Amino acid sequence: MYLNCHSFHSLRYGTLSIDDLVSQAEALGIKELVLTDINTVTGIYEFKKKCEEKQIKPIAGVEVRKGSELLYIAIAKSFSGLGEVNRMLTAYHCDGMDLPAQPDFTNCFVIYPLSNIPKKLHAHEYIGIREHELNSLFRREYQVLISKMVILNPVTFTTKKEFNLHRILRAIDNNMLLSKLPESEICLQSEYFRSPQSIVDAYRHYPQIMENTKQILLTCSFDFEFATPRNKIHYTGSKERDIMLLTRLAYAGMERRYGKNHEQAKQRVEKELKVIDELHFSGYFLITWDIIRYSNSMGFMHVGRGSGANSIVAYCLGITDICPLELDLYFERFLNLNRKSPPDFDLDWSWQERDIILEYIFDRYGKNHVAFCGTNVEFKYRSIIREVGKVFGLPKEELDALTKNPEQVFKDQVIQKVQEYGKLLEKFPNQRSMHSCGIIISEEPLTNFTALEMPPKGFAIVQWDMHVAEDIGFEKFDILSQRGLGTINDTVKLLEEKRGIKVNIKDTTISKDESRCNEYLSQGRTIGCFYIESPAMRGLLRRLKCDNYKVLVAASSIIRPGVAQSGMMREYIFRHNNPDKFEYFHPIFEEQLGETYGIMVYQEDVIRIALHYGGVSAADGDILRRAMSGKGRSRAALQKVKDDFFASCRQQGHPEELSTEIYRQIESFAGYSFCKAHSASYAVESYQSLYLKVHYPLEFMVSVINNMGGFYRTEVYIHEARMSGAQILNPCVNRSEQQTTIYGDEVYLGFMHLEKVEAKLGKLIPEERRRNGAYKSLEDFIKRIPIGIETLQILIFIGAFRFAGIPKNELLLKSRVLLGDFKPGRRAATLFEEPVKEFKFPELKRNLFEDAFDEIEILSFPVSCSPFDLLQTKYRGSVMAKDLLQHHKKQVKMLAYLISRKHVPTKRGIMYFGTWVDANGDYFDTAHFPDCLERYPFQGGGCYLLLGTVEVDFHFPTITITKMAKMPFIPDPRYTHDEEKKYETQERMKEDVSMTHRQPYPQEHEIGLPRMKL
Q: Which strand (E) or helix (H) includes residue 365?
């Protein structure tokens, strides 16, 4: 009876989750249910599972609409019928095809509403009749069609409140007031879940209609195997040819990586190839290799990371650059005979090159077989309040107040309604979007499983998310992008272009454990370097005096929030600095975990201890790890491995108490630890960045700036370039490019940093200069570049015409005379047909610091001087950052410029960690506790006077602040006679604020690692 049910995947229409829909059907004793969401199959796989749990027969379909007009309902007779609907919807979403008025389906029933009956009905086509339409059937033209009619009882909501929620959703979708919403945009009030008996009673005079409905429900089925792998299976077309090609490539790569006679590598390659072949994963490896091969042919740089770096075959194929033998990485962490789902490679490219890689994948494997995973963007509470408030007609001021204090109790009844319905919308999908990196490459056409949609990015997406993808047998390829690789790439290109230096940065031997790099690393001089530049990471590197690759790999793991929260980071730092003040639990811990002082830092360590202490197999060790980190599917499997672990320990004569403690540690660590291969991949890229920073600092910092930095704002990277010996110069029309560029030690900021100068113009200025020579004067520039007065004045204020040797004030007057009443369309005809008149301008004096205030206004930081030069005070602090180590437990007074602050929740309230530079340009860090912040809060970017006590924690000083005050700048000399504007510009100074919303740590559930033997 229920041929037309909507879930909330009918976006901004349905009000029931799949769970609610199926549970309510079960409560009413319904035995068959058809899910027909509007133009989507997003929910059908979850629907099938939930129905079968409740012994309800699931049937899948789609309600096809064009705008708010219902065209028909398509119900799949079998799974193949869904493919027909999917192909039609894909053509509509992706190719701009119109929805057919009468679709040509062979494996679907089609039900038309009474308002849209085609002239001729085919055998599989019916007319849906709602209860209120039964009275119309006395008309002669309908009498003859009764044999082709079925019950149409749509389900959209359950309660009156949900009906109101439906109306709100429709108003949001149409961006209109609830009071203005037309009836045509909403469902009928009868579209609720009625009991089967009430429907039978309503249609009792029309047994033919009831029989037709039952016949459809009886005929249709939704047969689908969830566990079947559906990724593209073969690269060459057959399993045999795949393994032959993979074997040949692996051995060729092994010789390249290890030389001809490396027995350990040979044994490992043989072992891995055997498992890969048995699990039918050769195709997956070869497809990944093919993508990397294309990338290399284009000269692109990539990073292969994640658990895939545990594989020596991946290393030999060039997918990863991590040697699993060097780091003792277990292949079983990535792939083992107990694992039924394909492995997962994470592949990173520069953000500038990723789209080229994506285009290759889509073209190479066919647009019918490749798509991004979708993702359901949910309504978020603050945005819900805005959306719901708008349809209720609340003014902007009230909406602002409400979103700032969402939990406040208001007396106003309308606001109460907004809050009430806003809460109901939490967790509702609002729109479909594109997964940031997950791509599916399928064996069968994807439209067999889903309709495709085309978001603005231009790459098709499936209609379900990565979790559904995994459930139904698809494993995604993660094709990611990052700015760190862009920086490395651009530095290498810049060195060749500007200095003729060729650096083979892919050769990891040149950038790993290099002495000068290690010195920088141990001092935390890593700003601009991928993954190791944040204040927390630089502090950790200094606490560890990290001076080699293996410690960096560990640091990349223990910095992660879960590891830090569990207490492992603190214990690791202690043991690293005090190797004689702890004992290993057992000789196996020293032998297997000596590198990390007996602490299971990595997921691989869990496998290692289970294997060497517990005596279980590496594959069972991985089951243990997966199960304990919440990824295990079976409690029974975990219990068996646990029982095997203790039985094996007893067999080896280990004391029960020690085995229990070690199992407790395994249990505690498994949920927090990080994949070592992942950390190693990060560490390689960090070292590549660091190598370039140490040996080619100016080109490196220019590339960081052009890739829009990383953790910090542009100003910090400009400061870092200056500290490395660069002369920083404002944009100049005769020297600058759209991006920042370098000539020797002169770094010219790019036009990209001028917010009000369009990118198109920023590119045109250097292009025109290359074609027709340098600009001779302001007049010559205006003649050659189509520019408006406002943009021209920005360029004058930033000093882009300083080559002319004319003061800014005079240039501004000149620009107004030249362009004052000038219309761009008359450029050629009027402005330059006559010689330019010479004007006599009055001499205008400029204050020394006017340029700096212009720079702050345009760039938000000064270039021609330091922020300290603009302070009213000449005091620069009693202690400088470089001397802090000598002041442990002493009170210091410092003057500093704020770089960044990190918000950290604690049990006593919010605290912050600050990062600053002193007048010498050196960095230092501060801690601000809640009681201090109440009296001395941060007041935005700028310079502060700080008073606090130095605490040196394992070579790293932090100042615990007791007092601080923001220091005023000199009055802005451009506004000598305007009291209000004299101090406005200082407010434009920026800071980086990173928010953390995790639970405060240390926490009660800390691992609590004993330091001495039991």
A: helix 354-365
